[in-house]
Amino acid sequence: MSKAAAANEYHSKDFEWEELKLEVETHPSLSYHLSPFQPSLSPSSQHPQAWSHFHSRHSTGKFFKERRYLLKEFPELLSCEDYSKVLEVGCGNGSTILPILRVKERTSVYACDCSVEALERAKQNLECSGIIHVMERFHPFCCDFSTTPFPNWLACDSCRNKQLEKLVHCDSEVNDNDRTLTDLPSVQNSRCCLGGVDFVTLIFTLSAIPPERMATAIMECFSVLKPGGLLFFRDYGLYDMTMLRFEPDKRVGFRHYMRSDGTLSYFFDLDGARNLFVGVGFNELELEYCCVKSVNRQKGKSMRRVWVHGKFQKPL
User: Fold this and answer.
1) Rounded distance between C-alpha atoms, residue 245 and residue 192, angstroms
2) Is 200:224 a contact under the CB 8 Å cutoff?
3) Dihedrals phi, psi of 277, to nearest 5 degrees
4) Is the pLDDT of residue 186 over 50?
5) CB-based contacts of 152-156 (< 8 A; 24+ apart in sequence)
6) Span 107-130, pLDDT tens digits
7) Are 265 and 51 in contact (CB under 8 A)?
8) What DSSP assignment string belongs to 256-286?
9) Is the dihedral of CA 41, 242, 219, 223 positive or negative?
10) Rounded Cα–Cα distance for residues 240 and 267 (Å)
11) In angstroms, rounded to a whole number, what is the distance separating the alpha carbons of residues 43 and 26?
12) Torsion (CA) 22, 28, 33, 37 in degrees, nearest 10
């Protein structure tokens, strides 16, 4: 099968989510996923360390595949203007960054992760990618956006708090030559921020933080977007195969689980995702379940995967 055909299959609607919902909610052996839950431990403090260990174990960079399909899911990344700025939140080993930088030669990507190990893997993967001038357009930085504000060189406090006129004025102070600036300390010393970003990608990242921090984390994304900017969201959906495989002792909250390595996974429904993003000020453009049948040919098993696809805009 060609890569293009595989991508098309990956995005197809192979089954109806409502049918899966009915099957799960009437299956006695799966009832523990739906029962009320009183947490007996707080997973919050384990988050950054667990992900650092995760990326250390998967140091070869082969654990994730390059996510070329995202350019079809979010075509605005392909049609954006030259010198657009993308903030990839939770970049991992660079699987989302690579296809953007490969196709858009004049786009810069600012990539953060809570794990220094992940940022090192991303840097190594990009250096080996063969993409022309890729390291001049890739700007990594360490940040746990669920607990720490994004740095002021990305969008200064006045830009975050004032009207569009002030934000445009601040952005205009960064001249055309500065738009391809690769030395982040010089940006910090220029007394002017980047003026915000045009796009934020939040791909399988929000589910990895505790639910009580999600609204704050999304607000951080909102604050560094330019007015009219877009946030692209893709994450685990309710009743995904991965959720149904968790044993009862792995539950740490309602629809919230901890893997054996200490990393967290939350499973979203559409209403929950909508409330989070609209609640901080975003306008909803797209929000739906992506339901895909994946076949494990070695074991001859068909697996039903569910993801939530969302596209949100910061009002002008």
Assistant:
1) 49
2) yes
3) -80, -45
4) no
5) 152/188, 152/193, 153/184, 153/187, 153/188, 153/193, 153/194, 154/87, 154/110, 154/193, 154/194, 154/196, 154/197, 154/224, 155/193, 155/194, 155/195, 155/196, 155/197, 155/223, 155/224, 156/192, 156/193
6) 999 999 999 989 999 999 999 988
7) no
8) EEE-TTS-EEE-B-HHHHHHHHHHTTPEEEE
9) positive
10) 8
11) 30
12) 120
pLDDT digits (tens, 9 = 90+) for 224-265: 999 999 999 999 999 999 999 999 999 999 999 999 888 899
Alpha carbon 166 to its chain centroid, in Å, reads 28
The whole-angstrom separation of Cα 164 and Cα 289 is 33
DSSP of 126-141, one letter per residue? Answer: HHTS--TTGGGSEEEE
C-alpha dist (Å) from residue 169 to 81, 82, 86, 185: 19, 19, 20, 22
Residue 77 tokens read as 């990344």
CA 88 to chain centre: 7
C-alpha span between 117 and 52 (Å, rounded): 6
Tokens representing residue 51 in the block: 């992900």
Provide CB contacts within 8 A for 114, sequence distance 6+: 47, 48, 51, 52, 90, 142, 143, 144, 145
CB 193 within 8 A of CB 178: no
Give the start-to-end residue ranges of the domains of the chain: 44-313
Superfamily of domain 44-313: Vaccinia Virus protein VP39 (3.40.50.150)
Rounded CA separation 307/290 (Å) = 5
If you average pLDDT over residues 2-27, what whole number do you get? 75
DSSP states along 222-235: HHHEEEEEEEEEEE
